[in-house]
Amino acid sequence: MLSLVDSGSGTVVGTVRGENVLLDVYRTGSGPTLLLLHGAEGREADEAFTDALAERFTVVAPSHPGFGLSPRPDWCDSVDDLAYLYLEWLEQQDLHDVVVVGLQFGGWVAAEMAVRECSRIGRLVLVDPVGIKVGGREDRDITDVFAISRAELDSRNYADPAAGPGDLALAPHEDVLHIARNEEALALYGWEPYLHNPRLRRWLGRVHVPALVIWGAQDGIVSPEYGRAYADSIPGARFELVEGAGHRAQIEQPDTLAELVVEHAA
Amino acid sequence: MQYWHFSETAYPYLPPEETINSVRVTLPNGVIDPARAADLWDRYLAEWQVADECGLNVMINEHHATATCMDPAAPVIAGILGRITKDARILILGNPVANRKDPVRVAEEMALVDLLSHGRLEVGFVRGVPYEVSAVNSKPVMMSERMWEAIELIQKAWTTHDGPFSWEGRFFQQRHVNIWPRPLQQPAPPVWVTAMTPGSAARIADDNYVIASFLTGYEGTRKVFEAYRDRVAETGRPTPADDRFAYAALTYTGDTDEEGLEGARKLMWYVKANKVPFEFVQPPGYTPYFARAAGLRGERSAYDFKSLTLEDLIEEGIVFAGSPSTVRGQIEKFYEKVGGFGHLLLMGQAGFLEHDETVRGIRTFAEHVRPRLDDLFTAHPVAV
């Protein structure tokens, strides 16, 4: 089992009905604040991208409740809860002009934050985000990650499947525990409707900050066309396709993505 | 001891195993020859009638999107059995309530079947097997919590007779619950809940429901039943009677040991023809994450019987098979090892065990095993 953070090692990100919400929060770098919201890969898997961002930003990277080493309060079971929790946290710290970077599932969380309240967000960057419905009722916009083999999952998440965790029988135990815990949290938040909120797209017009949507050209989970539709739904958003990257573009092209973020935040 | 004939009503005529990825969830239903499926249903129903004629009870279950069970609507079959059997108690084990979107509908179905069968229904509730969360789009996280909220809502629906009540729970919301008709058995039909691990037993014990365990063998079953008994003792109630405990085993009785084993070999289709890929066997959240991590690393699950031989399965108390005296001995031994139980669920048909073989197995059990066991164990009436 993993040892989750406790009141000694965790960060209080909010208080809900008198109870502190404790998360595992990683902070690194210096400069303007950048809130990095991970996807199903978990915060730990984004190390190279986090390091690249840390050269220009103070990166604040929480593990969402239920992911990584963050406990999950029983009531916390929806993306809405995550969005309100992080908005509350920005307010409590009295942060302004925060660069919010959301990766895949974390991109959905970031978008849900931005449609609710942009006053503390300076720039928004979404990397292969899920969260909206684009196609018709019989179009599977988002590959069912819970219904495919590990090999297929790697080949869809990465342009080069070798960038993925590979054969889990050979992977470090700790990593496999993280994968299992992260996938459970993903199922909790995103099982039905599957990894999207049917109402989110209609409200994306409320995102009043400059937004950049980055997409891995070889994303096999969600197509670049879906990404273009996402960007088209956010007023003035820019769309960037990155070659040599799958769904988890930050893992395969960390430096390119960090440069795009720096440029967008400038 | 009460005995229940059970068939999972498979459609066993499948393409070679190496040509398919899974017998569940993704196997196209184009594989089915509808006429053959209709014939199979005729014979499965006839087998339950034979069990009834022999003085046994009958048991059915429900699964979805799988060749292993052609019954995706247990209440339909239970309603039929209510009319084509005469004396048998009819057990649905069970209604997969963590996977059913509308528990009130389940309460209505059960009330209707109870009327149709003139009060012969026993209502089992199960959480639902892991394979089916994809087939029925049911979130595999917090299933147990969902199951219990559904059971509480169903119980209240059965037992409220003074007009509508509202229910605004975590998982289910209803404005006006006032089911018509209501069950014949008062205050409600007997309830069973399955448990495969000791951790599930306490909640079942608290409601005095029958606890049922499937293919868990001597050791697993003993632990599950013990957890139930411990909980009853802890809460200061009298020792529960045997009729609170049920166990399902693959069972085939022949005239000789050889014939019994031959039948059991055919029943093993149930455990051998269950080719399902990992992603459907262990969806995230169905088991604790660290247990699933072990599965991801390739460790064998406790319920993966594929590598076991018939002899292993008999040794572990998962299969009862042989001549009448052998089967009696196996059941007596099981009774001793698990601290007693009052319901034996006889999985007496599976795969390619043909109609005449199935009927022979049922009759031989009823005529030559049951009377001797009745002499040993008090024949408890089913608690109502």
Instruction: Please give the largest β-sheet of chain A.
Output: 7 strands, mixed
> Taking all residues together, what is the mean pLDDT of chain B?
96
Percentage of residues in strands of chain A: 15-25%
**Rg of Cα set of chain A:** 17 Å
What is the count of β-strands of chain A?
9
What is the number of domains of chain A? 1
Order of helices and strands of chain A: EEEEHEHEHEHHHEHEHH
Given the structure, what is the number of helices of chain B? 14
What distinguishing features does this structure have?
heterodimer, A: 266 residues, alpha/beta, Rossmann fold, seven-stranded mixed beta sheet, two-stranded antiparallel ribbon, 9 helices, B: 384 residues, TIM Barrel, eight-stranded parallel barrel, 14 helices, 42% helix, 16% strand, globular
Would you write up a description of this structure?
The complex is a heterodimer of chains A (266) and B (384). Chain A has helices at 47-54, 79-92, 105-116, 150-157, 173-190, 200-203, 224-233, 249-252, 254-265; strands at 11-16, 19-23, 25-28, 33-37, 58-62, 98-103, 121-127, 211-216, 238-242. By secondary structure, chain A is of the alpha/beta class. Chain A has a 7-stranded mixed beta sheet, with helices on both faces. A two-stranded antiparallel ribbon of chain A has the order 1-2. In chain A, strand 1 (11-16) and strand 2 form a beta hairpin. In chain A, helix 1 (47-54) packs parallel to helix 9 (254-265) and helix 2 (79-92) packs across helix 3. Chain A is globular and about 45 Å long. Chain B has 384 residues and is of the alpha/beta class. Chain B has a single domain (2-90, 187-376), classed as Alpha-Beta Barrel (TIM Barrel). Chain B contains 14 helices and 11 strands. In chain B, strands 1-2-3-4-7-8-9-11 form an 8-stranded parallel beta barrel, surrounded by 6 helices. In chain B, helix 2 runs parallel beside helix 3 (103-116). Chain B is globular and about 60 Å long. The relative contact order of chain B is 0.15. The chains are: A alpha/beta (266), B alpha/beta (384). The A-B interface holds A 1-2, 77, 144, 146-150, 168-169, 171, 173, 176-177, 179-181, 183-184, 186-188, 191-192 and B 25-26, 134, 137, 139-142, 277-280, 283-285, 289-290, 292-293, 296-298. Chain B: Residues 43-339 form the Luciferase-like domain. Chain B: InterPro entries: Bact_Lucif_Oxidored, Luciferase-like_dom, Luciferase-like_sf. Chain B: Keywords: Monooxygenase, Oxidoreductase. Chain B: It comes from Pseudonocardia dioxanivorans (strain ATCC 55486 / DSM 44775 / JCM 13855 / CB1190). Chain B: Pfam families: Bac_luciferase (PF00296).
